[in-house]
Amino acid sequence: MKILIIGAGKMGEAVLKKWLQNNSEFKKEISVVEINNKKRNTLKRKYSDVEFNKEIPDSWTGYLLLFAIKPQTFLAVSKEINSKNITTKIVLSIMAGVTLRSLKKRIHCKATFFRAMPNLASNIGMGVTGVFSRKPIIPKYKKKVEQLLNSLGWVYWIKSEKLFDPLTAISGSGPAYVFLFLQIMINSAKSFGFSDKTSKQLVLKTIKGASEILENNNNIDALISDVASPGGTTEAALKILTKNNTNLMIILNKAILAAYKRSKKLGENA
């Protein structure tokens, strides 16, 4: 099954890495286009069996074409694609903001088009990937796309493409919100005198334990109450986090809304 990956940034490489790990036979089947010389040469050393190109190959024929580029470059890349006589069964995009309508308008291939949004944890097989395609979908193509995306982690089929921008703001950008929160907690632990290593472990194991509890209990309000005893330490902290002028919920909601609006904006010129 021949695959052409266009773009090998953080997400493009994450997809490449997991597909190779889960399908060793892909080593001779995958070709990657990466215009950045330094990045391309680095990847060549890491994945020596994979073909890397600076430009899109002429008259490429295969099974799946993956767009893993920045949406701002899609217009120029689509023109190059159309000039190269590309033939494929499936076009899969993981570009933020670029709609299926734009994909079909810009890419002149008789193919089934899919749109997906994985996140950073795809690199370790624990990602969240939303995927969408317009009906009717050829069952064997849907099965193949799902199989490939499953290697990245949990796959969620989206019922409406309108949910893609919110998905990007929640799970696509979400790891950065979590990392920032963890950084604040780790720095606080260090300020009290814990070592760097201990501070990190204190926070990571606390977050991991809380996540495991939440997996089996959907009542978040009850879980917060379980920790926040009246007049206790947690209640004192929560009063600060929920003050009107520093309300964490309001601030985070504003941040997610900003990411959502930016996702929509990125797709406007595609």
What would your notes on this structure say?
- With 270 residues, the chain is α/β, with parallel strands linked by helices.
- The chain has two domains: 3-158, NAD(P)-binding Rossmann-like Domain (Rossmann fold, 3-Layer(aba) Sandwich); 174-267, ProC C-terminal domain-like (ProC C-terminal domain-like fold).
- The chain has eleven helices and eight strands.
- The protein has helices at residues 10-22, 37-46, 74-82, 100-106, 139-150, 164-172, 174-191, 196-215, 220-227, 233-241, 248-268; strands at residues 3-6, 30-33, 51-53, 64-67, 90-93, 112-117, 127-132, 153-157.
- An eight-stranded mixed sheet has the order 3-2-1-4-5-6-7-8, with helices on both faces.
- α6 packs across α11 (248-268).
- The longest helix is centred in the last third of the chain and has 21 residues, at 248-268.
- The model has no long low-confidence stretch (mean pLDDT 93).
